[in-house]
């Protein structure tokens, strides 16, 4: 049974919100920057510039790459693209991926709205369930959590196809925004190119939910495993070392493909494990992003 949205938000506010807000020290705009919409100037492209800011019309006319410079908006609009398909109900311990997703959304959305920013959401559970327009305040965060908590409308034997979620996002999100794609990314192939296209207009963070048991099976003897989305069942012998090795090899192959997809799409990935502390994962991610941007700025200066 899913926790009550009010209880989720109250727990997050009392236990981790102040802690994370203090660690970031109001630096979330530096962490997630680049939301300006007002064109300030055009200049020639320099090594290290964001390719998403290239003005292709001017570039074509002058035969030299030019980029747009923007005035920063004071307000950030953030969207949560939420995968609520059957596979996110999995968890080998006390925490399931679905509750991990709810905690992350409550935490990040509340931090953003506390600073006067707007948040919205698009929900998917093997079909696009609906869209919550961007709004601000604590009530907006509760609205998103209530939607996440509502019963699934998915068909019993349907598979996840994140392409549908990403297409819906391209349709609904007109203004440049900060976008969190929150999913375990267990999906039919084909979403990878769409993620890259979405990243050409928006700042994307892929928030990957996972459970350690999805990578390596322990020796539990004979057992039945079931696909949470299709309902397909398999009777397996986890005591067999060869079976566990094949399972781990397939998991590693999928892991490498997933990370390659994020890299090729030029999006950053925040990995959240059901066994990890959410605040520690977010602050570690924030530190890595700030460090990389610092190195990038130094490279441009040296160039």
Describe the structure.
The protein is an alpha/beta fold. It has 2 domains: 5-34 and 78-209 and 269-302, Rossmann fold, CATH 3.40.50; 38-71, no CATH class. The chain contains 9 helices and 10 strands. It has helices at residues 5-24, 28-31, 56-62, 97-114, 138-149, 162-172, 191-199, 241-264, 278-302, and strands spanning 38-44, 66-71, 77-83, 118-124, 128-135, 178-183, 203-210, 222-226, 233-237, 268-273. The strands form 3 sheets. It has a 6-stranded mixed sheet, sandwiched between helices. It has a two-stranded antiparallel sheet with strand order 1-2. A two-stranded antiparallel ribbon has the order 8-9. Helix 1 packs parallel to helix 9 (278-302) and helix 6 runs parallel beside helix 7. The termini are far apart. The model is unreliable at 34-39 and 295-303 (pLDDT under 50).
The top-level CATH class of the largest domain is Alpha Beta
Number of domains: 2
The low-confidence runs, each spanning 5 or more residues with pLDDT under 50, are: 34-39, 295-303
Query: Treating each run of at least 4 consecutive H or I residues as one helix, how many helices?
Result: 9
CATH topology of the largest domain: Rossmann fold
Mean pLDDT: 82
Number of separate strands: 10
Q: Which value, in Å, is the CA radius of gyration?
A: 21 Å
């Amino acid at each position: 049974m899913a926790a009550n949205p009010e209880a989720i938000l109250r727990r997050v506010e009392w236990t981790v919100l102040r802690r994370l807000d203090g660690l970031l020290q109001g630096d979330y705009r530096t962490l997630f920057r680049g939301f300006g919409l007002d064109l300030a100037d055009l200049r020639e492209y320099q090594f290290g510039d964001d390719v998403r800011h290239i003005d292709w019309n001017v570039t074509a006319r002058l035969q030299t790459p030019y980029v747009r410079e923007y005035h920063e908006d004071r307000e950030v609009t953030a969207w949560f693209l939420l995968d609520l398909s059957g596979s996110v109900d999995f968890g080998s311990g006390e925490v399931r991926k679905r509750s991990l997703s709810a905690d992350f959304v409550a935490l990040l959305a509340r931090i953003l709205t506390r600073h006067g920013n707007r948040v919205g959401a698009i929900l998917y559970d093997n079909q696009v369930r609906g869209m919550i327009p961007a709004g601000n305040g604590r009530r907006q965060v509760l609205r998103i959590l209530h939607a996440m908590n509502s019963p699934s409308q998915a068909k019993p034997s349907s598979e996840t196809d994140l392409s549908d979620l990403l297409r819906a996002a391209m349709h609904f999100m007109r203004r440049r925004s900060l976008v969190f794609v929150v999913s375990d990314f267990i999906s039919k192939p084909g979403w990878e190119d769409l993620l890259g296209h979405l990243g050409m207009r928006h700042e994307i963070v892929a928030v990957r939910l996972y459970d350690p048991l999805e990578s390596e099976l322990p020796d539990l003897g004979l057992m039945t495993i079931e696909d949470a989305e299709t309902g397909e069942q398999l009777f397996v012998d986890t005591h067999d070392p060869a079976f566990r090795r094949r399972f781990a090899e397939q998991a590693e192959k999928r892991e490498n493909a997933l990370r390659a997809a994020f890299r090729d799409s030029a999006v950053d990935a925040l990995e959240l494990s059901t066994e990890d502390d959410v605040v520690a994962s977010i602050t570690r991610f924030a530190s890595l992003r700030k460090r990389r941007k610092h190195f990038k700025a130094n490279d441009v200066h040296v160039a």
